[in-house]
Design a protein that fits this description.
Layout: H1 2-16, E1 38-41, E2 52-60, E3 63-71, E4 78-82, E5 107-111, E6 129-130, E7 133-134, H2 135-150, E8 157-162, H3 164-172, E9 180-184, H4 195-206, H5 210-215, H6 224-227, E10 234-239, H7 243-255, E11 262-266, E12 277-282, H8 294-305
Parallel strand pairs: 1-2, 4-5, 4-8, 8-9, 9-10, 10-12, 11-12
Antiparallel strand pairs: 2-3, 3-5, 6-7
InterPro entries: AB_hydrolase_fold
Protein name: Alpha/beta hydrolase
């Protein structure tokens, strides 16, 4: 009886510690984009993609993941677009840069950050989601599911994002070692970013106690050791006029690497990617942290990922 009582009380204590944000109520979302069909899936294992444009919602354990996809029959390559800061006046779910899909010669998926929900007012989530289900890990598993359906190899996948999306791209690159990773002006160490965004994120995702935050501290930074083990191209595209990110993110990260593990080059001297982490520096005093425009960015993605070539499997 004492054993049963102990186990029962343990379950009660566990359940009482489950926060509202750790629970995902299975529901149905209506169409998110005008004239784009939408599909709801109860679990990741039930995900099925359709050719052409669509949006999808996956309602799994402790996570709701929404994304836009443009699947092209003739392409064996996949570009993943990851979001930065969110304009909450437009809602919690959004697909940044999804309109670029028709101009990229690859299958394209634009993810909404699962950390950003109707239950909070966060503007940046860095794909943390909640402690019980790390968003970056679930992102990796979702992309692997897509790859399996489309018969796409790891080396034919590109993760792209700027700012917080750059962090998520680098972070998921720790899981997929062969994919290309392109990060523009990324955060690398979240604790070094503005406390106005970092503290609310900690409170939402890891607020039970300090021990929980310490346990998952590696989720809040890019692991230099894992990044240097990558086989795919890792490209950090950094504006030198973005002083905060140069001083608090890029420089500390580079200092963790050996000289043989990275290449630093100015954009006007760049010709091709070299082995190791490629740091490409550009100078835009007006834009500072803001990423380059659409045309320039697409050209850069094409140059790095070679989207104009459709590799066969």
């Amino acid at each position: 009886m004492n054993y049963i009582k102990k186990v029962t009380m343990g379950m009660i204590n566990f359940l009482s510690n489950v926060r509202p944000q750790d629970k995902v109520k299975v529901k149905q979302r209506d169409n998110i984009l005008v004239n784009v069909p939408h599909y709801n899936f109860k679990y990741l294992t039930s995900l099925k993609l359709n050719y052409g444009e669509s949006t999808c919602s996956i309602f799994d354990e402790q996570i709701e993941l929404n994304f836009y996809s443009f699947i092209k029959k003739e392409s064996s390559r996949l570009i993943i677009l990851l979001p930065g800061a969110v304009d909450r006046s437009k809602g919690a779910v959004g697909f940044q840069r999804y309109t670029w899909a028709k101009e990229l010669n690859a299958n394209v998926i634009s993810f909404s950050d699962p950390t950003i929900t109707e239950s909070n007012d966060l503007k940046i989530g860095w794909f943390q989601n909640v402690s019980a289900n790390f968003g970056v890990n679930y992102l990796y598993k979702t992309v692997k599911s897509v790859q399996k359906q489309l018969n796409i190899k790891d080396e034919n996948v590109c993760f792209f994002g700027s700012s917080a999306g750059g962090f998520a791209s680098l972070k998921v690159g720790e899981f997929n070692l062969k994919a290309t990773v392109i990060a523009i002006n990324p955060q690398i160490y979240l604790k070094n970013y503005s406390k106005n965004f970092y503290i609310p994120l900690l409170k939402y995702s890891y607020d039970r106690d300090n021990d929980l935050r310490k346990k998952y501290i590696n989720r809040l930074k890019v692991d230099s050791k894992l990044i240097t083990k990558r086989q795919g191209d890792t490209v950090i595209y950094q504006n030198i006029q973005d002083k905060e990110h140069v001083n608090l993110h890029l420089t500390p990260f580079i200092n963790m690497l050996k000289p043989t593990q990275y290449n630093e080059i100015r954009l006007d001297e760049f010709e091709k990617i070299q082995p190791g982490v490629s740091v490409i520096l550009y100078d835009d005093i007006v834009a500072k942290h803001s990423p380059p425009g659409k045309s320039e960015t697409i050209d850069f993605i094409n140059q790095i990922f070679d989207c104009d070539k459709l590799n066969s499997n």
